[in-house]
C-alpha cells in the first residue's frame, strides 16, 4: 500500500477517534450545564430561605436572628427615631383619679405669708394645686373558721351535728383565691411554683402545688358555661377571623386555634391542624371568614372568605429580594408596589379621608393588574413560582372581599394578635400536661382575651363565676352588653 494512503487511513482513524471524544465531551458538557443550572437554582432557593425572616415570610418574629431584627422595619424608617421620648415632644403627665374615687383627702393651706411672714387664715384663693399619691394597702388573707358543734337532745338523747349553710364555701379557699390563681397561671404565665410564691409574698396565703392545680380545674368548670355561650356567639357572627399555632399536650404535638371578633375571642386546643378541627372551632358556615391560605379552611365557600394580605405582602417582599432579573424578583417587585398602594388607600378609608365608593373605583384597575401579574407568574416557566402563583389564583374570589363588603378587613391581624399572648406562654411553659390542663388554658384565654376587648375586669368576672358555681346559679355572661 502506498505510504500516502496508509497515512490518510491513520489520519481518518484518528479523526474518527477525535470526533467520538468530541461527542463524549459535548454530552459531558451538556450534563455539566444541566447540573450547573440545577445547582444555581438550588443556591438561589437556599439563599432565599437563609434570608427569610418575619418581614418577608410567614415566619414568626420570635424566629428572627438578633442581627436580622432590624429587617422588621422598612429600610426608609431605620435610624429616623430612637426608642423613648423624642426631643421636643409634649409632656404627658399621669391623669388624676376622679374626686369620687379618692379614698383620703387632705386640704393643705399655707401657714404664713411668703411676703411678710404673717399668719394666714385657712381661706382658699383660686384653684388649688393638686398632688395625688397612690399606694397599695397591706393585703392579708381573711381566714374564716366555722366550728360545727354537736348538741344532745335533753328529751330523747339524740346527738345532732350542725350543718354548714349553703353560702359557705366547701373547699379550703374562697372564690377570690381561686380566681387569682387562675389569672396568675392561666394569663400572667406564672408556673405553679411561682404562683405558690406569689400568693405567699403578696397575700400571706400558703397553698400547695396540688391545691393550685385543683383551683385551676375548679375555675375551668366555673367558666365552662360562659365559654360555651361565647362559642355560640362566635359561630353566628357575620365576620370572623381564625388562626392557629403549634402547642404541646403531654408528649404529643397539638394546635392552639383561635376564632376572633371585635368583642369576643374563643380558643381551642386540638390534636390536629385539620379541617374538622376548624369546623369544630367555627361552627356554622355563614358570614365572612378571614384567614391565611391554610387548606384546613377550604370547606368555607371561597366567595365568603378573605385571604390575609399581610401574609401575601410578606411573601411578595420575599420574592422581590431574590436575585436581580429573575422571574421571582420582577414579579415580586411589581406585586409589592401594588400591595403598598392598596394599603395606603385602605388606611385612608379607615381614617375617613377616602370614601368607600372612591376606594372601590381606585381598586378596580389595581385588582386587574395584580391578577395579570399572578397569571404571568403562573406561566413563567419557573416551576416553584408557577406553583405559588397558581395557589394564590385558586383563592382569587377571596382576595378582594374587603373591597366589596364593608366591615371586612384585608388582614388577619385580629386573630394573630390574640394568639400572640399564647405564643409567649408556650415558649415559657412549653406545654400542658393533659387534656384537663388544655381545657383550663383555652377557657382562661377565652375569658381574659374577651373581657380585655370589652374593657371589663377579668378578676371580678372570675370571682362571680366561682361564686355562681358554688351557689348553683347561672354564670355571668361573657358577651358584650
What oligomeric state do the depicted chains represent?
A: single chain
Structural class: alpha/beta
- Low-confidence parts: none
N-C termini distance: 115 Å
Strand content: 5-15%
Rg is 35 Å
Describe the structure.
- There is one protein chain.
- This protein is α/β, with parallel strands linked by helices.
- The chain contains 14 helices and 7 strands.
- 48% of the residues lie in helices and 8% in strands.
- A 5-stranded mixed β-sheet has the order 5-4-3-6-7, with helices on both faces.
- Strand 1 and strand 2 form a beta hairpin.
- Helix 7 packs antiparallel against helix 8.
- 27% of the residues are buried.
Please sum up the structure shown.
Helix content is 48%, strand content 8%. It has 14 helices and seven strands.
Write the layout of secondary structure elements.
Layout: H1 3-50, E1 150-152, E2 159-161, H2 175-186, H3 192-203, H4 209-222, H5 224-235, E3 239-249, E4 252-260, E5 265-270, H6 275-282, E6 288-291, E7 305-307, H7 309-320, H8 327-351, H9 356-377, H10 383-394, H11 401-404, H12 413-429, H13 435-453, H14 458-470
Parallel strand pairs: 3-6, 6-7
Antiparallel strand pairs: 1-2, 3-4, 4-5
Helix pairs in contact: 2-4, 2-14, 4-13, 4-14, 7-8, 8-9, 9-10
Summarize this structure as a short list of keywords or feature phrases.
five-stranded mixed β-sheet, 8% strand, 7 strands, elongated, alpha/beta, two-stranded antiparallel ribbon, 481 residues, single chain
